[in-house]
Structure formats: C-alpha cells, structure tokens
Amino acid sequence: MNQFRMKLLPEHFEELEKGTEYTEIRCNDENRQRIKPGDQIILENTETENNQRGSC
C-alpha cells in the first residue's frame, strides 16, 4: 500500500469534512496514475497551522 498526499483549499477540505462534498476531481496526471486500489490518499488543508488531515 502506498500513501499519496493531496492538498485542498480550506473551503473544499471543510466541505469534505462536513460531508457536503463527496468527490474531489483531479487531472489524471502522472502522479494520479500511480494510485492503485488499496492505496491511501491523505488530504491536507493548505491553510491550517497543523496541516489538518483526512484520509480516504
């Protein structure tokens, strides 16, 4: 299992955290093509002091 970190703007991070946003769409660039089933994606809020995190 690999881990991938992706940064989100605060408004998008908060919507995901509240459950009012269900998807985060990203370009299928080289980094995203490496993600496989079972890998962990760590979402980071770009503007919090401690880089508040959530994972999926």
Unreliable sequence segments? none
Distance between the termini: 13 Å
Number of domains: 1
The biggest sheet, with number of strands, parallel, antiparallel or mixed sense and barrel status, is: 3 strands, mixed
User: What would you call the shape?
Assistant: globular
Mean pLDDT equals 84
Instruction: State the helix count.
Output: 2
Strand share of the residues? 25-35%
Sheet with most strands: strand arrangement:
1-2-3
Helix content: 10-25%
Count the E strands: 3
Written overview of the protein:
The chain has 56 residues and is an alpha+beta fold. The protein has one domain. A 3-stranded mixed sheet has the order 1-2-3. The chain is globular and about 25 Å long. The protein starts with a strand and ends with a strand.
Give a brief rundown of this model.
The protein is an alpha+beta fold and 56 residues long. The chain is 23% helix and 27% strand.
Helices and strands in order:
Blueprint: E1 3-8, H1 10-18, H2 30-33, E2 40-45, E3 53-55
Parallel strand pairs: 1-2
Antiparallel strand pairs: 2-3
Task: Provide keyphrases for this structure.
56 residues, alpha+beta, 2 helices
